[in-house]
Amino acid sequence: MKISLKILTSVAVLTSAGQALAENQPLTCWYNDHADFTSADSAASDATVGAVTKYGSGDKTYNYTISARDGNACPIQLPLSSLTAVTVALVSQDEGSCGNETVADAGSGPVSGSVTVARATEESSTAGIRIVGLSPNTSYRVLLKCGRQLGTLRTDDKGNGGRTFDFPNSAAANVYAFEIAPEGDKPGTKLQSLSFRK
């Protein structure tokens, strides 16, 4: 089965990049009419985590509310057709089970990135990978754990990168997770996502 890949052409870097907040909080991620991330700010008190809301135009065409320590967890692109999505943190850890049930975000280290999953159709979903502050100009393999390799993404000269990958829903177990590993798999360089549930 062929997996389609979409290369993200722009990565917005927040002024808060690398700043770790003590705990997760509701954040609003803003997107333009090309589905590219433009900014992040504190969510309104009535915002629902996971909801996508169509808004106005320009850099604030629509928004997506997540729970995270800072805007580095916002997906750098979110399909315009999305109504809901789920975002989880990427944690520096070499190993984990197929579903990464024991992987946790302790809230003490810098944000290394995130994985956002949005259901595209009854048969497929889209995983948006965002990595921040890793090794510059390095290729990373993206794996749906115990399922398949989805492809690779490459960081820029600041160690940031992102890409979306479509995958069949049937390839994911009821509890599933992702692993991001640099070419060569040196110890201490892999990222594990927190768990997703179907």
Quaternary structure of the protein: single chain
Structural classification:
mainly beta
Note the gap between the termini: 21 Å
Helix content: under 10%
- Write the element-wise H/E pattern from the N-terminal end onward: EEEEEEEEEEEEEEE
How many distinct helices?
A: 0
E-strand count: 15
Q: What's the alpha carbon Rg, rounded to whole Å?
A: 15 Å
What does the overall shape look like? globular
In the sheet with the most strands, the strands line up as 1-11-8-7-6-14-13-9-10
Verbal overview:
The protein has 198 residues and is an all-beta fold. The chain has no helices and 15 strands. The strands form 3 sheets. A 9-stranded antiparallel β-sheet has the order 1-11-8-7-6-14-13-9-10, with no helix packed on it. It has a 4-stranded antiparallel β-sheet with strand order 3-2-5-4, with no helix packed on it. A two-stranded antiparallel sheet has the order 12-15. The two termini are 21 Å apart.
What's the topology here?
Layout: E1 5-7, E2 25-31, E3 37-42, E4 52-54, E5 62-68, E6 86-92, E7 113-119, E8 124-131, E9 139-144, E10 148-154, E11 161-168, E12 175-176, E13 178-182, E14 191-193, E15 196-197
Give a brief description.
By secondary structure, the protein is mainly beta.
Key features of this structure:
mainly beta, globular, 0% helix, 9-stranded antiparallel beta sheet, 198 residues
